[in-house]
Write a structure and sequence with these properties.
Blueprint lengths: L1 E2 L25 E4 L10 E6 L8 E7 L2 E7 L12 H6 L13 E4 L2 E4 L2 H18 L5 E5 L5 H15 L4 E3 L6 H11 L16 E5 L3 H4 L1 H11 L6 E5 L5 H5 L2 E3 L6 H14 L5 H7 E2 L1 H7 L5 H8 L3 H12 L4 E5 L1 H4 L4 H15 L8 E4 L6 H6 L15 H11 L15 H10 L4 E5 L3 H4 L3 H8 L5 E6 L11 E4 L8 E4 L4 E5 L12 H12 L15 H12 L11 H7 L2 E2 L41 H7 L5 E2 L18 E6 L15 H6 L4 E5 H7 L6 E5 L4 E9 L5 E5 L42 E9 L50
Helix pairs in contact: 2-20, 3-20, 3-21, 4-14, 8-11, 8-12, 8-14, 11-12, 17-19
Protein name: Molybdopterin-dependent oxidoreductase
Pfam families: Molybdopterin (PF00384), Molydop_binding (PF01568)
Organism: Streptomyces vinaceusdrappus
Length: 829
């Protein structure tokens, strides 16, 4: 057992080395609140992490009716008992004194407390008024990647078949929509082909734009343990920052932003040129190889080197590494998904695996990763713009099947055009066609690009905004109605991680005050709206999490994400099962596509695909002619220059990203004292070369200005590639006294003051990593370092990262904490 006494300074804990093809040893991580002895814990309640996409299984410690700690579940296949810093400490936010405990409504320009009936009657009355006057297209729903499966499914039913609106999407659009789209483009359907277990068997692991050490820290622990064991894997890291992955990599490529397609085409070129391909696999399971080979024929490493600004010799080394692997695992995340040509680049990683035959066996795995804990549920339940159960909105038989499940006429389900993606929803709200926007579990006033525009949209008098959340976030402060929600540990539900592992999270404690589970809020709304099926019965027939789960099982039956073999009882006993789980696969399915590409057939596929350059949807006739037998599709893509390039006025590329200590907009992690103090304020990373050229030094207060806005933060000089700035996107305004954000023309704190309103044509994912900026000095520092952690990718260029001190704790920056309105430790002492 490893106590969490020093897991800020040593975020990945100690090592338990193991060899290739061996079982990852268990290590139970535990943290109890100060003063709580182990024998004071009255019960341990089963759950899993809600602060990243790993799905780390844990138990919640309860004493005197309150949470007092957590421990990892050593029987679980995902984490074998380990927990990351956010897992260990983030739960303390639940007891923050500034939790929302009663509904709020706007009266005279101010939010004032009210009762639930008043708030929900107001929401229902506005809904009925808009339906009568403007129709279902006047109402939109924008949800999260942090709710439970049962809540997403209920929301999808009431939005699609109750309201009848095409405007339903999740903030998964910001982090995982490219993963879904890339899988649909290649395999005809969403669903992760690989498994975390593949890390145990691979001899090469390639991480494309994926800082796994900070985004999925427990899986990084797994890789660290393998690196110290027998027959360790070799790592390929593609990342412009000097991440922990880069420091352990056999080959590290740091390309210019927006050039991923050029780099990947060069890797494909070298793989084909050296005949490192599995021609039998290609012939049996793919279409499009000839076109792909032709497209990359001229994409030499030297050609890519000029575009990507990396040495051709290093590209050749990377190509040899992935091309000669016996068992290759590739992971992809935001460095690809939030950059130029996002879907096109992610698809080329799929292509690399297909032409090498690296699919469907231990160690030959593909992980188009997620960024949020329940993003997979958002996608499979249809709360992300798609239809539930990975059904195809262009396939009338799929729509009819869904209509049968819901007992409504097919015409009731919007499918006359592509579902509305989040960025388009906000455009409709800006134009005035969407007049009511219900935002649940997300904070777009900090997380969307070009925040000055977002604030102007959300403050329109004609837009009626409902916000359902735990705290008075920057977005909630702009709402007309605020609904206090219960969160993880205060409600029961199912959550599915990035490798399709389904966990059950049990209610451990009561929510504060009058806060309610999101499911209860949605069910209340459905009752007040009196949604009916075609026979006049209630549209929503379930009443609690378990009955909602059974309703979802009926919807998932026979679909790729089949849950029919699961139950609450089974999940309680087993601690994590990968879907599909059916009568034929009662213990779940570790890997997809072990015997062909099952869901790519024209009659079965979730999507007929899109043009990777324009995003135009293909029709069934075109799909059927190209892929009549339902094989994996090798879709080629030409490199195109980014839409916004540095110039004399804005000479830097700007990218945003995460730190291990925070999640999204810090509504939870910023209220956990250990996490707050580990990374208390925003910072700006610049290369040592650029800092010297501009006469800037560590700790200087600088301004990052772009074409859309500006922010200020303390400078951290790192080993990031020259010409690039990095700003973490976690920091908003709730703890600064600035409410929902700065006034017009005033520099802010949030990274998204500067990012561009632009998105990938196929996945519609915003491109947070493609802006340009200027960097200027505001005032000299006083010699103190910036508030950036030194243990992670933000380590200073002088090599002082995690230097042990005389007391044994690694050195780290702990500047004065950001202003904080309430003591988060109150209630957990």
């Amino acid at each position: 057992m490893e106590e969490a006494t020093d897991r800020i300074a040593r975020p990945w804990g100690g090592r338990t080395p193991y060899g290739r093809h061996e079982t990852w040893p268990a290590r139970v991580d535990t943290f109890l609140a100060e003063g709580v002895a182990p024998d004071a814990v009255e019960r341990w309640v089963q759950s899993a992490s809600i602060l990243h996409s790993d799905g780390d299984a844990m138990d919640i410690a309860v004493a005197d009716g309150r949470m007092v700690g957590v421990r990892g579940r050593d029987v679980d296949r995902v984490n074998r008992g380990r927990l990351g810093p956010k897992d260990l400490f983030g739960w303390q936010a639940n007891a923050s004194r500034d939790r929302l405990t009663r509904p709020l409504v706007r009266r005279g320009g101010r939010l004032v407390e009210t009762d639930w009936d008043t708030a929900m009657d107001l929401v229902a009355a506005r809904s009925r008024e808009l339906l009568e006057e403007r129709g279902p297209g006047s109402i939109g729903f924008y949800t999260s990647g942090q709710l439970f499966l049962e809540e997403y499914y209920t929301l999808a039913v009431l939005a699609r078949a109750g309201i009848g609106t095409p405007h339903l999407d999740g903030n998964t659009r910001l982090c995982t929509s490219t993963a879904a789209e890339a899988l649909k483009e290649t395999f005809g359907c969403d669903g992760q082909p690989g498994s975390y277990d593949d890390f145990d068997h691979a001899d090469v692991i390639a991480l494309f734009g994926h800082n796994i050490a900070e985004t999925q820290p427990v899986q990084w622990m797994r890789l660290l343990d393998r690196l110290e064991g027998a027959d360790p894997p070799r790592l390929l890291c593609v990342d412009p920052r000097p991440t922990q992955v880069a420091r352990h990599a056999a080959v590290h490529l740091a390309p210019r932003g927006g050039t991923n397609v050029a780099l990947l085409n060069a890797l494909l070129h070298e793989t084909i040129r050296h005949d490192r391909v599995d021609r039998d696999f290609i012939a049996a399971h793919t279409v499009g190889f000839e076109e792909l080979a032709e497209r990359v024929a001229d994409c030499t490493p030297r050609w890519a080197a000029d575009i990507c600004d990396v040495p051709a010799a290093r590209i050749e080394e990377a190509a040899e590494l992935v091309g000669t692997a016996d068992a290759l695992v590739s992971t992809v995340l935001q460095g690809v998904y939030q950059s130029h040509q996002a879907t096109a680049a992610a698809v080329q990683v799929n292509n690399l695996h297909l032409i090498r035959g690296m699919l469907g066996r231990p160690g030959a795995g593909l992980l188009q990763m997620n960024g949020q804990p329940t993003a997979q549920n958002t996608r499979e339940c249809g709360a992300d713009g798609d239809l539930p159960g990975f059904r195809n909105w262009q396939n009338d038989s799929h729509v009819a099947d869904l209509a049968k499940v819901w007992n409504v006429e097919p015409e009731r389900i919007p499918h006359y055009a592509p579902p509305t993606h989040a960025m388009q929803m906000y455009r409709y709200a800006e134009q005035g066609s969407i007049r009511m926007l219900w935002i649940s579990g997300t904070n777009p006033a900090v997380s969307l690009p070009e925040l000055s525009r977002v604030r102007s949209i959300l403050t329109q008098d004609r837009l009626f905004t409902v916000v359902q959340d735990l705290f008075l976030t920057e977005t909630a402060q702009l709402a007309d109605v605020v609904l206090p929600a219960a969160t993880w540990g205060e409600k029961t539900g199912v959550l599915t991680n990035a490798d399709r592992t389904v966990h059950l999270s049990r209610k451990a404690v009561e929510p504060p005050g009058e806060a309610r589970p999101d499911l209860d809020i949605f069910l209340d709304y459905a009752r007040r709206m009196d949604f009916r099926d075609k026979d006049g019965g209630p549209l929503v027939t379930w009443h609690d999490p378990e009955s909602a789960f059974r309703a979802w099982q009926r919807c998932s039956a026979g679909r790729p994400c089949d849950y029919t073999g699961l139950s609450y009882a089974k999940l309680h006993d087993t601690s994590g099962i990968q879907w599909p789980c059916t009568a034929d696969a009662p213990e779940g399915t570790p890997r997809l596509y072990t015997d062909g590409i099952a869901w790519a057939h024209p009659d079965l596929c979730e999507s007929y695909g899109k043009d990777l350059e324009t995003g135009a949807s293909q029709e069934v006739v075109e799909y059927r002619s190209l892929n009549p037998d339902g094989k994996a599709m090798l879709k080629a893509a030409a490199y195109l220059p980014p839409h916004e390039e540095p110039d004399e006025e804005y000479p830097f590329q700007l990218t945003t990203g995460r730190t291990i200590y925070h999640f999204h907009t810090r509504t939870k992690t910023g209220r956990a004292p250990q996490l707050r103090d580990a990374a208390p304020d925003v910072w700006v990373e610049v290369s040592a070369v650029d800092a010297e050229r501009l006469g800037l030094a560590e700790g200087d207060l600088v301004e990052v200005a772009g074409r859309r806005g500006a922010l200020r933060g303390r400078l951290r000089v790192t080993g990031i590639r020259p010409g690039l700035l990095f700003v973490p996107f976690h920091y908003g305004y709730w703890d600064t006294g600035n409410g929902s954000g700065p006034g017009p023309g005033t520099p802010g704190r949030a990274a998204n003051e500067t990012t561009v309103t632009d998105w990938d044509p196929a996945s519609k994912q915003p491109l947070f990593k493609t802006a340009t900026a200027a960097l200027t000095l505001v005032e000299r520092g006083d010699g103190s370092p910036s508030p950036a952690p030194t243990t992670t990718a933000s380590a200073p260029a002088d090599g002082e990262a995690a230097r042990p001190t005389a007391g044994g704790e690694a050195a780290r920056t702990t500047q004065s904490p950001a202003r904080f309105p309430h003591d988060p430790e109150e209630g957990v002492r």
